[in-house]
Amino acid sequence: MIPSQKTGLAGIDIRMVRRISRIAIARGHAMPEAMTAPTGDGFDQKARDAVYRAMFTRRDVRSHFTSEAIDDEVLARLLLAAHHAPSVGFMQPWNFIVIRDVARREKVRDLFLAAREQELPEMEAERQALYRKLKLEGISESALNICITCDRERSKGSPLGRWHNPEMDLYSTVCAVQNFWLAARAEGVGVGWVSIIEAHALKALLSIPGHVTPVAYLCVGRVSQFAPRPDLETHGWGQRLPLPELIMSETYRGQGEAPLKSTVARLKSVEAEPHGQRVAPAVPQREPPKEASALSFNSLNLEDASASR
Ligand SMILES: Cc1cc2nc3c(=O)[nH]c(=O)nc-3n(C[C@H](O)[C@H](O)[C@H](O)COP(=O)(O)O)c2cc1C
Protein backbone atom coordinates (compact mmCIF):
# COMPACT_ATOMS: atom_id res chain seq x y z
CA MET A 1 0.00 0.00 0.00
CA ILE A 2 1.38 3.43 -0.91
CA PRO A 3 0.89 5.85 1.95
CA SER A 4 0.32 8.86 -0.28
CA GLN A 5 -2.61 7.15 -1.98
CA LYS A 6 -4.18 5.33 0.89
CA THR A 7 -4.71 6.33 4.48
CA GLY A 8 -4.14 4.10 7.45
CA LEU A 9 -7.85 3.30 7.52
CA ALA A 10 -8.26 -0.21 6.18
CA GLY A 11 -9.57 -0.16 2.66
CA ILE A 12 -10.76 3.43 2.88
CA ASP A 13 -9.13 5.86 0.53
CA ILE A 14 -8.14 9.41 1.31
CA ARG A 15 -11.20 10.88 -0.43
CA MET A 16 -13.51 8.96 1.86
CA VAL A 17 -11.65 10.14 4.98
CA ARG A 18 -11.87 13.73 3.74
CA ARG A 19 -15.57 13.24 3.09
CA ILE A 20 -16.11 11.90 6.62
CA SER A 21 -14.22 14.94 7.97
CA ARG A 22 -16.28 17.35 5.87
CA ILE A 23 -19.57 15.79 6.95
CA ALA A 24 -18.51 15.85 10.60
CA ILE A 25 -17.41 19.46 10.39
CA ALA A 26 -20.54 20.50 8.47
CA ARG A 27 -22.66 18.95 11.19
CA GLY A 28 -20.68 20.78 13.84
CA HIS A 29 -19.36 17.56 15.30
CA ALA A 30 -15.65 17.76 14.72
CA MET A 31 -12.90 20.24 14.48
CA PRO A 32 -14.48 23.50 13.37
CA GLU A 33 -12.03 25.82 11.69
CA ALA A 34 -11.34 27.70 14.92
CA MET A 35 -10.09 24.50 16.52
CA THR A 36 -7.63 23.77 13.77
CA ALA A 37 -6.42 27.34 13.22
CA PRO A 38 -2.74 27.68 14.11
CA THR A 39 -2.23 29.85 17.17
CA GLY A 40 0.48 30.09 19.77
CA ASP A 41 -2.00 30.51 22.59
CA GLY A 42 -3.07 27.82 25.00
CA PHE A 43 -6.71 26.90 25.28
CA ASP A 44 -9.06 28.91 27.45
CA GLN A 45 -9.66 27.56 30.95
CA LYS A 46 -12.85 25.67 30.05
CA ALA A 47 -11.20 23.93 27.12
CA ARG A 48 -8.12 23.05 29.16
CA ASP A 49 -10.28 21.64 31.93
CA ALA A 50 -12.06 19.51 29.34
CA VAL A 51 -8.78 18.09 28.05
CA TYR A 52 -7.61 17.20 31.56
CA ARG A 53 -11.04 15.87 32.40
CA ALA A 54 -10.85 13.40 29.52
CA MET A 55 -7.44 12.26 30.76
CA PHE A 56 -8.29 11.93 34.44
CA THR A 57 -11.65 10.23 33.95
CA ARG A 58 -10.68 7.92 31.09
CA ARG A 59 -11.07 4.32 32.18
CA ASP A 60 -10.27 0.92 30.84
CA VAL A 61 -13.82 -0.44 30.64
CA ARG A 62 -14.64 -4.13 30.94
CA SER A 63 -17.77 -4.40 33.08
CA HIS A 64 -20.09 -1.52 32.33
CA PHE A 65 -20.94 -1.87 28.65
CA THR A 66 -24.59 -1.43 27.70
CA SER A 67 -26.25 -2.92 24.63
CA GLU A 68 -26.67 0.50 23.00
CA ALA A 69 -25.22 0.79 19.49
CA ILE A 70 -22.64 3.39 18.53
CA ASP A 71 -23.53 5.74 15.68
CA ASP A 72 -21.16 5.63 12.75
CA GLU A 73 -20.88 9.40 13.08
CA VAL A 74 -19.46 9.01 16.59
CA LEU A 75 -17.19 6.18 15.52
CA ALA A 76 -15.98 8.26 12.57
CA ARG A 77 -14.95 11.06 14.94
CA LEU A 78 -13.03 8.65 17.13
CA LEU A 79 -11.21 7.24 14.12
CA LEU A 80 -10.46 10.72 12.87
CA ALA A 81 -8.99 11.59 16.28
CA ALA A 82 -6.87 8.44 16.16
CA HIS A 83 -5.76 9.29 12.64
CA HIS A 84 -4.43 12.65 13.86
CA ALA A 85 -1.97 11.03 16.25
CA PRO A 86 1.70 11.83 15.87
CA SER A 87 3.70 9.28 13.92
CA VAL A 88 7.37 8.82 13.19
CA GLY A 89 8.26 10.31 9.80
CA PHE A 90 4.50 11.01 9.45
CA MET A 91 4.23 7.40 8.33
CA GLN A 92 0.73 6.84 9.81
CA PRO A 93 1.33 3.11 10.13
CA TRP A 94 -2.12 2.31 11.49
CA ASN A 95 -5.17 0.52 10.18
CA PHE A 96 -8.45 0.09 12.02
CA ILE A 97 -10.26 -3.24 11.69
CA VAL A 98 -13.86 -2.81 12.83
CA ILE A 99 -15.24 -6.10 14.13
CA ARG A 100 -18.99 -6.31 14.63
CA ASP A 101 -19.70 -9.96 13.83
CA VAL A 102 -20.77 -11.76 16.99
CA ALA A 103 -19.41 -15.16 15.96
CA ARG A 104 -16.00 -13.70 15.13
CA ARG A 105 -15.92 -11.92 18.46
CA GLU A 106 -16.75 -15.17 20.24
CA LYS A 107 -13.70 -16.69 18.58
CA VAL A 108 -11.55 -13.80 19.79
CA ARG A 109 -12.96 -14.34 23.26
CA ASP A 110 -11.96 -17.99 23.06
CA LEU A 111 -8.42 -16.82 22.29
CA PHE A 112 -8.57 -14.60 25.36
CA LEU A 113 -9.75 -17.47 27.57
CA ALA A 114 -6.96 -19.71 26.30
CA ALA A 115 -4.32 -17.00 26.77
CA ARG A 116 -5.56 -16.28 30.28
CA GLU A 117 -5.06 -19.93 31.25
CA GLN A 118 -1.54 -19.77 29.84
CA GLU A 119 -0.76 -16.57 31.74
CA LEU A 120 -2.17 -17.81 35.03
CA PRO A 121 0.69 -20.13 36.10
CA GLU A 122 3.11 -17.22 35.62
CA MET A 123 1.36 -15.31 38.42
CA GLU A 124 2.59 -15.45 42.00
CA ALA A 125 0.63 -18.23 43.73
CA GLU A 126 -1.21 -15.89 46.09
CA ARG A 127 -2.35 -13.67 43.19
CA GLN A 128 -3.82 -16.45 41.07
CA ALA A 129 -7.19 -16.55 42.85
CA LEU A 130 -7.60 -12.79 42.50
CA TYR A 131 -6.51 -12.94 38.85
CA ARG A 132 -9.24 -15.49 38.14
CA LYS A 133 -11.86 -13.16 39.63
CA LEU A 134 -10.84 -10.12 37.60
CA LYS A 135 -12.92 -9.24 34.58
CA LEU A 136 -10.33 -8.49 31.94
CA GLU A 137 -12.35 -8.09 28.74
CA GLY A 138 -15.72 -7.05 27.37
CA ILE A 139 -15.33 -8.55 23.91
CA SER A 140 -18.88 -9.78 23.48
CA GLU A 141 -20.80 -7.30 25.65
CA SER A 142 -19.43 -4.18 23.95
CA ALA A 143 -21.09 -2.73 20.84
CA LEU A 144 -18.12 -3.55 18.65
CA ASN A 145 -14.43 -4.33 18.70
CA ILE A 146 -11.62 -2.54 16.91
CA CYS A 147 -8.19 -3.95 16.23
CA ILE A 148 -5.64 -1.20 15.64
CA THR A 149 -2.72 -2.51 13.65
CA CYS A 150 0.71 -1.26 12.65
CA ASP A 151 1.89 -1.78 9.07
CA ARG A 152 5.62 -2.19 9.60
CA GLU A 153 6.38 -1.69 5.93
CA ARG A 154 4.37 1.42 5.22
CA SER A 155 7.42 3.64 4.97
CA LYS A 156 9.68 1.00 3.49
CA GLY A 157 12.61 2.67 1.73
CA SER A 158 12.34 5.97 3.65
CA PRO A 159 12.63 5.09 7.32
CA LEU A 160 12.78 8.65 8.69
CA GLY A 161 13.36 8.29 12.43
CA ARG A 162 13.26 4.52 12.27
CA TRP A 163 16.67 3.57 11.00
CA HIS A 164 18.12 3.38 14.52
CA ASN A 165 14.81 2.79 16.26
CA PRO A 166 12.61 0.61 14.08
CA GLU A 167 10.07 0.15 16.85
CA MET A 168 8.98 3.80 16.56
CA ASP A 169 6.18 2.76 14.21
CA LEU A 170 4.70 0.67 17.02
CA TYR A 171 4.96 3.60 19.41
CA SER A 172 3.23 5.80 16.84
CA THR A 173 0.37 3.34 16.67
CA VAL A 174 0.03 3.41 20.44
CA CYS A 175 -0.35 7.20 20.16
CA ALA A 176 -3.30 6.58 17.83
CA VAL A 177 -4.79 4.21 20.39
CA GLN A 178 -4.52 6.84 23.10
CA ASN A 179 -6.13 9.51 20.89
CA PHE A 180 -8.98 7.11 20.21
CA TRP A 181 -9.33 6.33 23.91
CA LEU A 182 -9.43 9.96 25.04
CA ALA A 183 -11.81 11.04 22.29
CA ALA A 184 -14.04 8.11 23.24
CA ARG A 185 -14.10 9.28 26.84
CA ALA A 186 -15.17 12.73 25.74
CA GLU A 187 -17.97 11.15 23.65
CA GLY A 188 -19.12 8.97 26.57
CA VAL A 189 -17.90 5.82 24.85
CA GLY A 190 -16.04 3.21 26.87
CA VAL A 191 -12.91 1.48 25.61
CA GLY A 192 -11.24 -1.61 27.04
CA TRP A 193 -7.87 -2.83 25.79
CA VAL A 194 -7.47 -6.61 25.66
CA SER A 195 -3.87 -7.72 25.35
CA ILE A 196 -4.26 -11.21 26.80
CA ILE A 197 -4.46 -12.78 23.35
CA GLU A 198 -1.85 -14.73 21.44
CA ALA A 199 -0.90 -12.45 18.56
CA HIS A 200 -0.38 -15.12 15.90
CA ALA A 201 -3.77 -16.66 16.57
CA LEU A 202 -5.40 -13.23 16.41
CA LYS A 203 -3.62 -12.46 13.14
CA ALA A 204 -4.89 -15.71 11.64
CA LEU A 205 -8.45 -15.03 12.81
CA LEU A 206 -8.48 -11.50 11.36
CA SER A 207 -6.45 -12.33 8.21
CA ILE A 208 -3.73 -9.88 9.21
CA PRO A 209 -0.67 -10.23 6.94
CA GLY A 210 2.77 -11.08 8.29
CA HIS A 211 4.26 -7.58 8.08
CA VAL A 212 1.37 -6.08 10.06
CA THR A 213 1.34 -6.15 13.88
CA PRO A 214 -1.90 -6.07 15.83
CA VAL A 215 -1.10 -3.42 18.45
CA ALA A 216 -4.37 -3.04 20.30
CA TYR A 217 -7.55 -5.09 20.46
CA LEU A 218 -10.23 -2.75 21.81
CA CYS A 219 -13.73 -3.37 23.12
CA VAL A 220 -15.79 -0.26 22.34
CA GLY A 221 -19.27 0.66 23.49
CA ARG A 222 -21.64 2.86 25.40
CA VAL A 223 -21.36 2.36 29.15
CA SER A 224 -23.57 2.67 32.22
CA GLN A 225 -20.73 4.39 34.06
CA PHE A 226 -17.06 5.23 34.03
CA ALA A 227 -15.66 3.88 37.27
CA PRO A 228 -13.97 6.52 39.41
CA ARG A 229 -10.81 4.41 39.73
CA PRO A 230 -9.02 1.75 37.73
CA ASP A 231 -10.67 -1.65 38.18
CA LEU A 232 -7.34 -3.14 39.15
CA GLU A 233 -7.01 -0.59 41.94
CA THR A 234 -10.55 -1.23 43.18
CA HIS A 235 -9.90 -4.97 43.30
CA GLY A 236 -6.60 -4.61 45.13
CA TRP A 237 -4.35 -5.65 42.26
CA GLY A 238 -2.31 -2.48 42.14
CA GLN A 239 -2.15 1.16 43.10
CA ARG A 240 -1.07 4.28 41.30
CA LEU A 241 2.62 4.83 42.05
CA PRO A 242 3.63 8.06 43.74
CA LEU A 243 4.57 10.39 40.88
CA PRO A 244 7.34 12.28 42.76
CA GLU A 245 9.23 9.00 43.13
CA LEU A 246 9.19 8.54 39.36
CA ILE A 247 10.79 11.89 38.58
CA MET A 248 14.56 11.91 38.12
CA SER A 249 16.94 14.78 37.60
CA GLU A 250 19.34 15.00 34.67
CA THR A 251 20.29 11.31 34.70
CA TYR A 252 18.59 8.05 35.55
CA ARG A 253 18.23 7.92 39.35
CA GLY A 254 19.50 11.50 39.47
CA GLN A 255 18.37 13.26 42.65
CA GLY A 256 17.02 16.76 42.59
CA GLU A 257 13.98 18.66 41.32
CA ALA A 258 12.70 18.96 44.89
CA PRO A 259 10.42 21.97 44.18
CA LEU A 260 8.89 20.21 41.19
CA LYS A 261 8.37 17.03 43.20
CA SER A 262 6.69 18.83 46.05
CA THR A 263 4.44 20.67 43.59
CA VAL A 264 3.52 17.34 42.02
CA ALA A 265 2.92 15.83 45.46
CA ARG A 266 0.45 18.60 46.24
CA LEU A 267 -1.42 17.90 43.01
CA LYS A 268 -1.62 14.25 44.00
CA SER A 269 -3.08 15.15 47.37
CA VAL A 270 -5.75 17.20 45.61
CA GLU A 271 -6.54 14.21 43.42
CA ALA A 272 -7.26 11.98 46.41
CA GLU A 273 -10.68 13.40 47.15
CA PRO A 274 -13.20 11.59 49.35
CA HIS A 275 -15.99 9.51 47.80
CA GLY A 276 -13.84 8.52 44.88
CA GLN A 277 -14.28 11.91 43.25
CA ARG A 278 -11.41 13.00 41.09
CA VAL A 279 -10.20 16.52 40.99
CA ALA A 280 -8.37 18.00 38.05
CA PRO A 281 -5.39 20.18 38.81
CA ALA A 282 -6.07 23.69 37.66
CA VAL A 283 -3.96 24.87 34.81
CA PRO A 284 -2.37 28.17 35.74
CA GLN A 285 -3.73 31.20 33.99
CA ARG A 286 -1.25 33.14 31.90
CA GLU A 287 -0.80 35.63 34.72
CA PRO A 288 -1.54 33.95 38.02
CA PRO A 289 -2.44 36.18 40.94
CA LYS A 290 0.60 37.12 43.04
CA GLU A 291 -0.32 34.91 45.97
CA ALA A 292 -0.74 31.82 43.77
CA SER A 293 2.16 29.45 43.36
CA ALA A 294 3.43 28.51 39.92
CA LEU A 295 0.91 25.72 39.85
CA SER A 296 -2.27 26.81 41.53
CA PHE A 297 -4.99 24.38 42.51
CA ASN A 298 -8.61 25.12 42.24
CA SER A 299 -11.20 22.68 43.39
CA LEU A 300 -12.76 21.95 40.06
CA ASN A 301 -14.76 18.86 40.73
CA LEU A 302 -15.07 16.77 37.62
CA GLU A 303 -18.49 15.34 38.40
CA ASP A 304 -19.76 18.83 39.21
CA ALA A 305 -18.22 20.13 36.03
CA SER A 306 -20.17 17.61 33.99
CA ALA A 307 -23.41 18.59 35.72
CA SER A 308 -22.90 22.26 35.01
CA ARG A 309 -22.15 21.93 31.32
C1 LIG B 1 -1.01 -1.93 26.56
C2 LIG B 1 -2.17 -2.19 27.47
C3 LIG B 1 -2.71 -3.47 27.56
C4 LIG B 1 -3.79 -3.74 28.41
N1 LIG B 1 -4.32 -4.99 28.45
C5 LIG B 1 -5.41 -5.23 29.22
C6 LIG B 1 -6.05 -6.51 29.23
O1 LIG B 1 -5.68 -7.44 28.53
N2 LIG B 1 -7.12 -6.68 30.03
C7 LIG B 1 -7.60 -5.66 30.81
O2 LIG B 1 -8.58 -5.87 31.52
N3 LIG B 1 -7.01 -4.45 30.82
C8 LIG B 1 -5.95 -4.21 30.04
N4 LIG B 1 -5.38 -2.96 30.02
C9 LIG B 1 -5.94 -1.89 30.86
C10 LIG B 1 -5.15 -1.68 32.14
O3 LIG B 1 -5.39 -2.72 33.03
C11 LIG B 1 -5.59 -0.33 32.74
O4 LIG B 1 -5.23 0.68 31.84
C12 LIG B 1 -4.96 -0.05 34.09
O5 LIG B 1 -5.39 -0.99 35.03
C13 LIG B 1 -5.31 1.35 34.59
O6 LIG B 1 -6.70 1.52 34.57
P1 LIG B 1 -7.41 2.68 33.76
O7 LIG B 1 -7.05 2.51 32.32
O8 LIG B 1 -8.88 2.51 34.01
O9 LIG B 1 -6.87 3.97 34.29
C14 LIG B 1 -4.31 -2.69 29.19
C15 LIG B 1 -3.79 -1.40 29.09
C16 LIG B 1 -2.73 -1.14 28.24
C17 LIG B 1 -2.19 0.26 28.13
Polypeptide structure, described:
The protein has 309 residues and is of the alpha+beta class. It has two domains: 58-234, 3-Layer(aba) Sandwich (NADH Oxidase), CATH 3.40.109.10; 243-307, no CATH class. The protein contains eleven helices and four strands; from the N terminus they run ααααβααβαβαβααα. It has helices spanning 14-26, 33-36, 45-57, 72-83, 102-119, 125-133, 168-186, 199-205, 231-234, 258-271, 302-307; strands at 94-99, 144-151, 189-194, 212-222. The protein has a four-stranded antiparallel beta sheet with strand order 1-2-4-3, sandwiched between helices. α1 (14-26) packs across α4 (72-83). Mean pLDDT is 82; it is low at 1-14, 271-280 and 282-309. The structure holds flavin mononucleotide (FMN). Flavin mononucleotide (FMN) is lined by residues 59-60, 62, 136-137, 193-196, 230, 232.
Please tag this protein with its features:
single chain; 309 residues; alpha+beta; NADH Oxidase; four-stranded antiparallel β-sheet; 4 strands; 39% helix; globular; disordered C terminus; binds flavin mononucleotide
- Low-confidence segments, ≥5 residues, pLDDT <50? 1-14, 271-280, 282-309
Strand order of the largest sheet: 1-2-4-3
The overall pLDDT, averaged over residues, is 82
From the spread of the alpha carbons, the general shape counts as globular
Provide the gyration radius in Å.
Answer: 21 Å
Count of discrete domains: 2
User: The CATH topology of the largest domain is what?
Assistant: NADH Oxidase
Structural class: alpha+beta
Strand content: 5-15%
Could you give the order of the helices and strands?
Answer: HHHHEHHEHEHEHHH
Number of strands: 4
Assigned CATH superfamily of the largest domain: NADH Oxidase
